[in-house]
Amino acid sequence: MAGTPDAVLRELEGLRALARALVGSDVDADDLLQDTAVDAIRHPPRDDGRPTRPWLAAVLRNRSRMDLRAASRRRRREQAVAETASDASAGDSIDRARVLERLSRALVELDEPFRTTVVRRYLDGQSSAEIARALAVPPGTVRWRLKTGLDRLRAALDDHSPSWRAALIPCLQGAFVVKTKLSVVVIVLALLLAGAWWKLSRPSPAATKLAPAAATVAAKPSRAVALAPGQARATAETVALPGGRIAGRVINWSTSAGVADADVTFTSAAGATTVKTGDGGAFELAPNEPGAYSLATINAAGFLPYAPELDHSPIDVQFRKGRTVDGIIVFLYPALDYHGVVVDRANAPVAGAHVALLGSPAGEQAEGRLATEWTTAADGSFTFHAPDDTVFEASKGALRGWAKLDGNVAITKLMTIQLGDAPARDSTITGAVVDEHDQPLPDALVRAEPAEKTTTAPIRATAFATTGPDGKFALDHLDKSAYDVAAELDGRARTTQRVNAGTRGVELVLTSGVTLAGTVATGDGTPVPSFTLTALRRDGAARDVELARTIVDPRGYFEVQVSPGDFDLVAAATGLAPTAPLHVDARESKRDLQLVAKPGATITGKVVDSATGQPLQYARVMRDAFGAGASAQPSNVGTVTREDGTFELAGVPEGLASINVAAGDYHRKSQSGLVAKDGATLGPLSIALVKLMPGEQPTLELVGIGIAMAADGDGLRVQRVIPNGGAQAAGIIVGDLVIAVDGTPASELGVEGAVAHIRGDEGTTVSLSIRRGDQVLAVVCTRMKLKA
Description:
The protein is of the alpha+beta class and 788 residues long. The protein is 22% helix and 36% strand. The chain has an eight-stranded mixed sheet. It has a six-stranded mixed sheet with strand order 33-32-35-36-38-45, with helices on one face. The longest helix has 22 residues, at 139-160. The model is unreliable at 71-88 and 168-226 (pLDDT under 50).
């Protein structure tokens, strides 16, 4: 790692915006940066040529996690620092006081305009861009003034007392006990000035870069192709900007309204930059130089944060010289008040129970500001905010219980956790992530997903960890069962192992893998500049997600690494139909892949209350199909109804289609039997939703034969048969293996394709080929209305 104090300071200040996004306030961000600085001073990076930012970002991430999960450690650390300071001799204390006095005097005596620039930057916390606007000078001038001013401060201290650096070390430690604005100035200046811990003979490449200056929110109208709510189509244009530009909107997932005053944070090799959305949720970023960025966090009052593990965001943005991408849409989910209640085996409320949020499958709030622990009130209740599919654990004494925020809870806003006799989930999986040369890989993201995924499987959470400098990890709070443990790191192929909880010394090897690269474009060759790319590993009828990344690039270009095997590549962009699956035999790298996006069909209709006929606003209408990707940019977006209940759902791919319609306090409905053709308009449909009765659990109304299936080899294993459906009437039983639907092999269809073929119009039939033991049976099932 490169490591001059200039480089460390710039990287640390570049992470200020990200720290603020993670912890939610300037004061807490100062605390986090200060603690990170202490760690950096005590344990400086190795001077082995690698960039400073990833190392310092890892220090920041680890410090944030420790602060969130172990506040007591902070208290013990501060107490230890205070004791160390109290043990110093009176002479040392006087020396430190004199150094601080000289530093303050040198700052006051600094010539203008250097003094004002340094004070604005480090005392007022303004960015270089903000200072440039306030002083009406170019940002480059601000950076020159900062460098010159800090050089003069260093020279003034050197002239007065060459030994000032050594005296300043304990002063720095003591400064962290007093969390004040002035201490930030001392720490930041000391990090830059006190170069005793790093070599000054060789400049770092990172030291030549600053966090990019962000352009203000665009006041001009968006040039995106306007469609129905939430379905704007991104466009690419040529602009006279050296670093390119992106522009878009942050919108509310529930209403598609813009989210103003949201903090949108991007990270790159140059640091972190936060831009704030304006009216309508608009944001714009125009860095000084082109380069690769990641959308690190999005935070707004009243919304769940988008905050994946630092440096592991699946949303990549490529800025290119003279090019812009306009019309990017990213989503935030409202932080709805959910109500939980903990009950005992007799369903009586349990007061004083401890409730903990164990995590969500995506882990996208890993660095967010969500509360994660509660104590139930006298009536056993607690109120919480969480993303879908989050798992909770409640305990009191030896009694425990678990629940998940599933679709039913999302509608009813009520979750019940019943306590009972159950062993503690205190198993651990430990190990290390290494490369193909057995060298440790730090900062790899490791996750453990429950291996059993049937509808009857116990409720279990996905566990997450990131590897330390030695490549080691520990996954905690697991039950005694099997998990699929996966490791991933940018630039390397994902790897997965089936591991039993309690296993120690697991080794996960991340290789450079196979490169898949190419372009996504429309039929006339126009690049699609913003899309979500999903790589689905094919294994018989199974289609498992190897990776799902959102890519913003004006050229429509992608380049990803996968492990060798058979894949289906699919690109999905708002306003366009997903590309047809491209089957890739990825035994070796391929760099000329082409995915073609078509306009698809548009489905129109109106959603109403079944009893009153009144239109339902904000009902969500989506393709009834597989979706992947980050919550901020999912591959299956859909739309919402307007005030009059009408909707237009664009980008429906050719072939059999069905849509899923949901609204708060209503039973959901799947509308099937649709045949989409490119460029055609289907409808208008009239969809009536049934309102929930008090205490009623929501159901899904659909037309099908009434079976639940999961991939098993080249077929689809029947896991559940819904009573009174066409499958039960035809004699299908649990355990049957569906090997073909209407003559098409299940291995070609996969689960999603098979479901699309099975659903249709009420009263029509579908033919299935069933393997039962050594027999192959031809079964004809009638499609019926069902409630699941």
